[in-house]
Specification:
Layout: H1 2-8, H2 15-34, H3 37-49, H4 52-59, H5 65-107
């Protein structure tokens, strides 16, 4: 994001880059730590493919039938997780843009 900003506005106040990094970090912290968004997104996917007992067995995985299932199902989980992550990223874009714009105005950065 900062690379695009540098290219589009080479004369921008250097503090703008600190603001961008700070706001992205704050939003990621809010979403992944405070709001637990990652768990909220991933739990339904794991629940769809595994029982609670199977999830416990993941910890003790070895060369069992369950281990073979895990190998078979993990690509589906990864694919679904990537799609959910992409959608989540799209939702965060406007929020990040709004906060950065607000901070730029507060700092007098154009």
């Amino acid at each position: 994001m900062t690379t695009i900003l540098k290219r589009s506005k080479p004369d921008i106040n250097p503090k703008a880059f600190d603001i961008v990094e700070e706001e992205i970090s704050n939003i990621m912290d809010e979403e992944f730590v405070i709001n637990d968004s990652f768990k909220t997104m991933m739990y339904p996917i794991y629940n769809k493919h595994f029982t609670e007992d199977e999830l416990r067995k993941m910890i003790e995985i070895n060369d069992t039938e369950f281990g073979k299932k895990l190998i078979r199902v993990m690509p589906l989980i990864n694919q679904e997780g990537m799609l959910v992550g992409q959608e989540f990223g799209k939702k965060l874009g406007p929020k990040i843009q709004q906060r950065i714009t607000k901070r730029f105005k507060e700092e007098g950065i154009k």
